[in-house]
Specification:
Helix content is 28%, strand content 21%. It contains 15 helices and 23 strands. An 8-stranded parallel β-sheet has the order 7-14-15-16-17-18-19-20. It has a 6-stranded mixed β-sheet with strand order 8-9-10-11-13-12, sandwiched between helices. β10 and β11 form a beta hairpin. It starts with a strand and ends with a strand. 56% of the residues are buried. One of its GO terms (molecular function) is hydrolase activity, acting on carbon-nitrogen (but not peptide) bonds. It comes from Mycolicibacterium goodii. Pfam families: Amidohydro_3 (PF07969). This is Peptidase.
């Protein structure tokens, strides 16, 4: 059998196997992994590529991302790539407003709280720039909306408005809304944003896919398919239509959004959606359940009260634990994998309890259940991941001394909880599978930046958002660092396992030829984060090549 392409003189990444420097591809599959070129596989049309010692890796698979949201942000008032400065944000808002005079609502995303003195912007920042039109800007973590006074007025939010369930209106000393709305408190202002067209959504998806391929990503799990909050729109049909049109070049798993307010009656709708997928590149066999918020705004669900705040606030569990048991059991009974959001240690425990119940109810079902984020995990719960077979879906780029973490998050946790801040190594040491994702657009989708942080527990100078004293040279909880092979495996084989894509994530005979070619050997590079993908391949077809 003649190969279509043979990559040789490569630093081939094969965790736990004999070293190889040559990979042969035929059609969409890998047909040989060896040392040296087997001349019997070389035909007249075989393309032999000498990589000069550079790394050949399985394609990166992002286990937790929101690409359509990222694409939408890129097509709107995009603050995500700007320096963390109030003036830079306001200049971008002014420029966008001037360039789009016909937009009834100025929508966008990407701001960071550390650009402002108290960790939050206010409506008074925006009002002098745009006063007549509502401005609605989602934070980079998608847990807050920064709005002007006009948006608050049109949404009917004032000092008398009660905080909604699952959200909080940030107020000043007089009880007046400051212009930041956390979690579900942003629903009423986001309802002001005009409905986007299917064409706009498709453009957003394809723009995001282009970006992900450029950083070596060959597949992902969209962790909120169908969600409608913070300006996000139901993106299920976007994926289905793009897949049917042959435009989806990545392999995508959709985690269908569980609507907390609807409860169990939505199960039939989720099943119907799953049945509409699975024909080519898009499947939807997972369901996303969100159990809490984030630590920085005290909506993550904690076992003990937050420090540095008045009272005994322990955050919010969005679903009652007894109800959560029912939800997970029903989903597993319908053969859905369950993808859970848990940031705080109480939410992590509640999710583990609920998944243990579901696994007990359906012991033969290989659901690939997973819990994402895991900002704080109580040491009693760390061994449970491996024991239960629950995947730890980690966002490694967060495990560093960012200014926002130093000034807003760690004081709320207190020193007694800091050792359990992103305990990746401890979870792995107890036998759990790690899968890695970016949570893009919350943070950058570059897997190599995340791998750098997983290994060193520091930020990389390549990342403009790695800002803070010691962020580049003072590891945060260095005992929780993982090795480079473990980090690469988490972003490849681990994420493939989490997605149920068992023919991807590894370089071996018979696996799908989803590959990324780097510009150097990642194991000898001076800086992991400075390594660049030069070619991304899905099913033997090149989907990105560096110019």
């Amino acid at each position: 059998m003649f190969a279509d392409r043979i990559f040789t003189n490569a630093a081939v990444f094969q965790a736990g196997t004999e070293p190889a420097d040559t990979v042969a591809v035929k059609g969409d599959s890998i047909i040989d992994v060896s040392r040296g070129v087997d001349r019997a596989m070389v035909g007249a049309r075989t393309d032999i590529v000498d990589l000069g010692g550079a790394s050949l890796l399985p394609g990166f698979i992002d286990a937790h991302a929101h690409p359509v949201a990222a694409g939408m942000a890129a097509l709107r008032c995009d603050l995500s790539g700007l320096p963390h400065h109030r003036e830079a944000y306001l200049a971008a808002i002014a420029d966008h407003a001037a360039a789009h005079p016909d937009e009834a609502v100025i929508a966008g995303a990407g701001w960071y709280g550390d650009a402002f003195p108290n960790g939050f912007p206010t409506r008074h920042d925006i009002d002098p720039v745009v006063a007549e039109r509502p401005v609605i800007l989602t934070s980079h973590d998608y847990h807050g909306a920064w709005v002007n006074s006009r948006a608050l007025e049109l949404a009917g939010i004032d000092s008398h408005t009660v905080d909604p369930a699952g959200g909080r209106i940030v107020r000043d000393a007089d009880g007046e809304p400051t212009g930041v709305l956390l979690d579900r408190a942003g629903d009423t202002v986001n309802a002001l944003i005009p409905e986007v067209t299917p064409e706009f959504m498709r453009r957003a998806l394809l723009e995001a896919q282009r970006r992900l391929h450029s950083v070596g990503v060959t597949g992902w799990q969209d962790a909120a398919v169908g969600a409608e909050f913070f300006g996000l729109k139901d993106n299920f049909d976007t994926y289905v239509d793009a897949d049917a049109a042959g435009e989806l070049t990545a392999r995508v798993v959709g985690a269908l959004w569980w609507e907390t307010e609807r409860g169990v009656e939505q199960l039939s709708d989720l099943c119907a959606r799953r049945d509409r997928t699975g024909h080519t590149r898009f499947t939807a066999g997972m369901v996303k359940v969100m159990q809490d918020g984030i630590c920085e705004n005290c909506t993550a669900s904690m076992l003990a009260p937050y420090r540095a705040v008045a009272g005994d606030d322990t955050g919010q569990s969005f679903i009652d634990p007894d109800e959560l048991h029912k939800v997970t059991a029903l989903l597993a009974g319908e053969r859905f994998g369950i993808h859970m959001h848990a940031v705080g240690d109480r939410a992590v425990r509640e999710c583990l309890d609920a998944l243990e119940h579901a696994i007990t109810q359906q012991p033969q079902f290989d659901g690939r259940h997973q819990i994402a984020h895991l900002d704080v995990v109580d040491p009693q719960d760390i061994p449970r991941f491996g024991r239960l077979g629950v995947i730890a879906n980690i966002q490694a780029l967060w495990a560093r001394r960012d200014k926002e973490i130093l000034e807003r998050k760690l004081p709320l946790l207190g020193p007694e909880r800091e050792p359990w801040h992103f305990p990746f190594a401890s979870i792995q040491r107890h036998g759990a599978t790690l899968a890695m994702g970016s949570d893009w657009p919350v943070t950058d989708p570059n897997p190599l930046w995340a791998i750098h942080t997983a290994v060193h527990r520091t930020g990389t100078p390549a990342d403009p958002h790695a800002i803070g004293d010691g962020v580049h040279d003072m590891p945060v909880q260095p005992q929780e660092a993982i090795t480079l092979p473990s980090a690469i495996s988490a972003y490849t084989a681990g994420s493939a396992y989490a997605n149920g894509h068992d023919r991807t994530g590894r370089i071996a005979h018979g696996m799908l030829a989803d590959l990324v070619v780097l510009d150097q050997d990642i194991f000898t590079a001076d800086d992991i984060a400075a390594v660049r993908p030069v070619e991304t391949i899905v099913g033997g077809q090149t989907v990105y090549r560096a110019s």
